Request: fold
Amino acid sequence: MANDDLTSADKDVIHQSLEKASEKLGDITPLVYRALYSRYPQAEAHFKTKGAQYKESLEGSMVTDALFSFLEYFESPEEVDIVFKYTIPQHEELDIPLVYFYGLLEAVADVVIDAQPADDREEAAASWQRLLARLAHLVEKYAETDPGLPQSACGGG
Ligand code: HEM
Reply:
């Protein structure tokens, strides 16, 4: 099986890992932004582009949208394709570097993986990596300019 094949076993692993993460952490949002802003401190300002008063609610909805995209990908990849088709140019119009957009997806995955018991972590990381690679492809597909994603993002590393 090619390393980037996403299977129904991955779907189960992703679902279980999300359940475990929410049992252990409750709301993952604060940890997601801690991870994102420690990697990309300048990403934070972009949540204030609509006004500082909307920052928290935007941060919350982007995590919800990221989780939706991950889970929906197993049900209907076509629908996630459409979401990205519209939302990637929208983020580019707002001058949000797509490396931050992808960074948020990665931060969600990292927080969930870190919350797994040590014995399950490797398997969870492999499934998340395959799923992230699919979404990285969609970012690249709909970006109007080179999004400059990390080399490993599309499963090449
Ligand atoms: C650092 C990364 C990100 C930043 C700074 C960001 C910021 C924003 C901003 C400022 C808007 C405009 C809201 C408005 O017009 O009222 C927006 C909209 C949107 N974003 Fe993001 N976003 C990020 C990542 C993501 C990710 C990873 C997803 C999902 C995969 C996502 C999904 C959406 C969607 C669906 C909308 C349009 C609908 C809505 O307003 O909720 N965003 N984003």
